[in-house]
């Protein structure tokens, strides 16, 4: 379940653009899912715990709007790219979060 290099590069780019505020994701806390609807694609990232393997799992669906094709990728805690996907998930879920100006 290692992610292809092309997908890892794409995730790094999404993470950088999300952290810089260029991308704003929708976070569904009930489904443990973040989604981004861009002009040419839609991406959904879903987190689940696998009770059989006893590891966290991320599933990514990439939908290309130009040719109406869906692509599916996944990784789990046993693979080094899990941390990369986890960083994107954390950045994405906080991208539309409103925090108080003064937390105290």
Characterize the structure shown.
This protein is of the alpha+beta class and 104 residues long. The protein has one domain (5-94): Double Stranded RNA Binding Domain (2-Layer Sandwich), CATH 3.30.160. It is built from two helices and five strands; from the N terminus they run αβββββα. The protein has helices at residues 5-19, 82-94, and strands at residues 26-28, 33-37, 41-50, 55-64, 69-76. It has a five-stranded antiparallel sheet with strand order 1-2-3-4-5, covered by helices on one side. A hairpin with a 4-residue loop joins strand 4 (55-64) and strand 5. Helix 1 runs parallel beside helix 2. The protein is globular.
